Amino acid sequence: MNPLAVVTGGSKGIGRAIAERFVNEGFDVVVCARAIDDVQAEGLIPFAADLSDRSGVDALLRYIHSLNRPVDILVNNTGIFLPGQIQNEAEGTFELTMNTNVASAYHLTRGLLTDMIARRKGHIFMMCSTASITAYTNGGSYCISKFALLGMSRVLREELKTHGVKVTAVLPGATLTASWEGTDLPEERFMKASDVADSVWAAYTLSQSAVVEEVLIRPQLGDIP
């Protein structure tokens, strides 16, 4: 039986690239997203849920547990970006962003950790951002959430290091995904989603005695202002 990975926000962009990379390496991958119509490739196991709501996270956990298969890799990738500043972003932006980008990762990770700790095996990837370390105007709640996600990654790393479970925070800069649709910038100004997927795979392939704690990836020409 193939090893199993779980990738949230895996229907497109970075999440889809990561899911496909693991399938190519012999994994089956549970791909969770709100819309899964395009998730039909061999090796991908689609599950529709809105992880901004706790009930969606709980439904995903029930489904994963129903498979009766150990989870070797969890990629907490689901997220949203609503531009704005703290003083003028729409009411409710903070709660929605934190629930989607942070709370979903917290509760999903908690729901899968017991088995990982018991088996002394597992690798958790937290999809952070360069916004986790560099605040910027118009980032508002998004920056707050990504700083929080990096903090959670560091706490998990300390808590799990003696249990054999690895934690890696991934901090990508501007990546050419649907979120940049309509930009006038040339394609070569961005990283490719496959660049992030390759970095995740490389971090996973280290020996059990080593862990990549944080991966910071930027376009060769630097961040896009």
UniProtKB/TrEMBL annotation:
Alphabetic keyword roster: Oxidoreductase
Q: Quote one Gene Ontology molecular function term.
A: oxidoreductase activity
Pfam families registered for this protein in UniProt? adh_short
Source superkingdom: Bacteria
User: What Gene3D superfamilies does this protein map onto?
Assistant: NAD(P)-binding Rossmann-like Domain
Family according to the record = Belongs to the short-chain dehydrogenases/reductases (SDR) family.
> Which protein, by its recorded name, is this?
SDR family oxidoreductase
**Source organism:** Spirosoma terrae
